[in-house]
Specification:
By secondary structure, the protein is an alpha+beta fold. It contains 8 helices and 9 strands. The N and C termini lie far apart (123 Å).
Length: 319
């Protein structure tokens, strides 16, 4: 009888331990479910960020192609907007220039299914209410600006009523620099809230900053070498127009580990990667100066058993 009572007590104890263990496993399971759900949400967010970033890379690559194809500044601006919209899946992209006298940002080109939004839009580059949105702020602060909830952001209030019928949910603006100052801005709109991730802005800010450094360095080189006629382009998509043929410069650049190309015989095209660093830009400028110096010297050296006048001087005289 005592053995039977003992067995019952052991059974009860084992059942209690079993219930406790089941409860613990249940709690762990719930925690794992919550953790798994969090992980899945985080992975989904990261996947969207990667997709957005890859799409942005595609946009910038296609814009660089538009630079090469463009036959005039106006053509380039519109084609750049078109490439951004079509490659990035955006609602609208427009490029505006600042009027120095009024600080108004005037649309110069746009592309997208909601082009009416830009026509007649009021945007300024100063600190009045119409200058506090993405376009005016990026021009004033020389830095990319993102509004990921456009219709509920107090800084975009002047455009809420105008934007709502067009389905605008988020916007990003990026300054366009020229001659050491901000010429205007590129503004992009999406129908998705939180469309523009932080990595997007960082990437385009790097393009802007490194592009400005590259242009500044190339402008300094143009002052040293009189056969450089013009530096043109935006961001990292830059052309160096020469008064002499560019093919020898391309060959010498390749010998020094630089990859550039030549279009229309006299224009060197520079298309560095969009993640290029400041140190890499400086190293490129150092090597490119060596390319310019050595190639121009070779081009101007007198050929054996021919005229004592160098091809370079003959070319200069012809001009």
């Amino acid at each position: 009888m005592q053995d039977e009572d003992k067995s019952k007590e052991q059974l009860i104890t084992e059942l209690r331990e079993l219930r406790k263990r089941v409860a613990e496993l249940d709690l762990v399971g719930k925690r794992q479910v919550r953790t798994s759900a969090t992980d899945i949400t985080e992975r989904a967010k990261q996947t969207r960020e990667i997709e957005h970033l890859n799409r942005l890379y595609s946009v910038l690559s296609r814009v660089s192609q538009a630079v090469v194809r463009a036959t005039s500044p106006e053509t380039f601006l519109e084609q750049a907007c078109r490439e951004i919209v079509e490659a990035g899946g955006f609602l609208l992209a427009w490029i505006g220039q600042v009027e120095l006298m009024t600080n108004a940002v005037v649309p110069k080109a746009f592309w997208g299914g909601i082009g009416e939004y830009v026509q007649g839009i009021t945007v300024y580059a100063d600190s009045r209410p119409e200058g506090l949105g993405p376009t005016g702020t990026c021009i004033r602060e020389h830095y990319p600006v993102v509004h990921n909830d456009f219709l509920h952001d107090p800084q975009t209030l002047p455009w809420h009523d105008r934007a709502a019928p067009f389905g605008i949910a988020s916007a990003a603006a990026f300054p366009i620099e020229r001659a050491g100052g901000v010429w205007g801005a590129l503004t992009i709109y999406s129908d998705e809230v939180d469309r523009f991730g932080g990595e997007d802005a960082k990437l385009l800010e790097n393009v802007r900053a490194r592009g400005a450094e590259l242009r500044e360095g190339l402008t300094a080189l143009a002052a040293k070498f009189d056969f450089i006629r013009e530096i043109r382009g935006e961001g990292l998509m830059i052309g160096v127009e020469l008064s002499i043929e560019g093919a020898p410069f391309v060959a010498e650049a390749l010998n020094r580990g630089l990859l550039i190309n030549c279009t229309h015989d006299f224009t060197l095209r520079l298309l560095p990667p969009f993640i290029v660093t400041r140190a890499q830009v400086r190293e490129f400028l150092r090597l490119f100066e060596m390319v310019l110096a050595s190639t121009s010297k070779a081009e101007s050296s007198p050929a054996p058993k021919k005229s004592e006048h160098s091809p370079r001087l003959a070319h200069s005289a012809a001009r």
